[in-house]
Amino acid sequence: MLDWVNRIKFSENSPLEVLGHENNFGFQRHKPQIMDASHWHGHIEINYLFNCSADYLINGKKVSVPEGRMILFWASIPHQMIASSGEGEMVNIYVPLQSFLSWKFSNTFISEILHGEVLVADSLHSSDHPVTRMWEDDLEKKEIALTMQVIDEIRNRIRRMSLESYSTFELSHSSDKLDNKSLVGGLFHIQAILRYIADNYDQKVTIENVAQVTGLHPNYAMKLFQRVMKISIKKYINKLRLQHAQALLIDTNNAVLNIALEAGFGSISRFYDIFQREYQQTPQQFRHQWTNPEHGERMYI
């Protein structure tokens, strides 16, 4: 949840590789830039178009986004900016997929995104531009409390979008035309696995359970997930559980044992082992650092 990079850079050698940042948040502000080729990655991507418009090529279909809009899409679909106009600027925000799914938006909203749809807010709010400036300033300070606040505000901005009117480009109707030999050929199976994990990660989940929702052999399901998501199913489930536990450590006074069980860890020892391996601190240290930021060690992310 706390991993963040100021700018996610894409490898020139492979459009799928994002230099190990698939599980990091990202933020960047820039002038619209025409891309030489499509790329794709595992994030949920937000694009703000402030005083500019842009044309995208998304999964082979041209999409024109008017000036002053906010769009949201799952960036595992090949996408490319092919034209832009206006003197404004763009803000790109990258949200790790496991974070997005842990935020528990409506099934309809999530389903549209996971089926390859581009969601377009019908209009920006007057606060959007100054708020993104504030987020940028807060992130540059690299303080844990401000970073967590920015994440919460991004989540709430997406939630507001999900509750207000938005449009789509009906891209999901053509998503069955994906080339099964491409890197995203198993997208529908991945969507089913992600949806199942998002709904059940706080319970006991086996590879057989996960594979059953797709009708795939467990070994093939594991290989397909690793190939597309660049992370194993086991590690992905643990990341969702860790994010759930982090939220409970910050937002509640629940005992660590209860938090471990509520987040889906089978035992307190397993929770401690995974938490410390991932964050190099105990759950209590994390909670103390958040609840007493002026006394805690600053975390650079």
Name the descriptors.
seven-stranded mixed beta sheet; 2 domains; three-stranded antiparallel beta sheet; Arc Repressor Mutant, subunit A; 301 residues; 17% strand; alpha+beta
CATH level-four homologous superfamily name of the largest domain = Jelly Rolls
SS element count, helices: 11
List low-pLDDT spans: 11-20, 174-185, 295-301
Give the % helix.
Answer: 40-55%
What's the story with the biggest beta sheet?
Answer: 7 strands, mixed
Topology pattern, helix = H, strand = E: EEEEEEEEHHEHHEHHHHHHH
Topology readout:
Blueprint: E1 4-5, E2 25-30, E3 44-50, E4 53-58, E5 61-65, E6 70-74, E7 79-85, E8 89-95, H1 97-102, H2 107-114, E9 119-121, H3 128-141, H4 144-163, E10 166-168, H5 187-200, H6 207-212, H7 218-229, H8 233-251, H9 256-262, H10 268-279, H11 283-291
Parallel strand pairs: 1-2
Antiparallel strand pairs: 2-8, 3-6, 3-8, 4-5, 4-7, 6-9, 9-10
Helix pairs in contact: 5-7
Domain HTH araC/xylS-type: 191-289
Pfam family, one: HTH_18
Organism: Paraglaciecola arctica BSs20135
Describe the structure.
This protein is α+β, with helices and mostly antiparallel strands and 301 residues long. The chain has two domains: 4-173, Jelly Rolls (Sandwich); 186-293, Arc Repressor Mutant, subunit A, CATH 1.10.10. It has helices at residues 97-102, 107-114, 128-141, 144-163, 187-200, 207-212, 218-229, 233-251, 256-262, 268-279, 283-291; strands at residues 4-5, 25-30, 44-50, 53-58, 61-65, 70-74, 79-85, 89-95, 119-121, 166-168. Helix 5 crosses helix 7 (218-229). The chain is globular, with a radius of gyration of 19 Å. InterPro entries: Homeodomain-like_sf, HTH_AraC, HTH_AraC-typ_CS, RmlC-like_jellyroll, RmlC_Cupin_sf. This is Melibiose operon regulatory protein. GO terms for molecular function: DNA-binding transcription factor activity; sequence-specific DNA binding. It comes from Paraglaciecola arctica BSs20135.
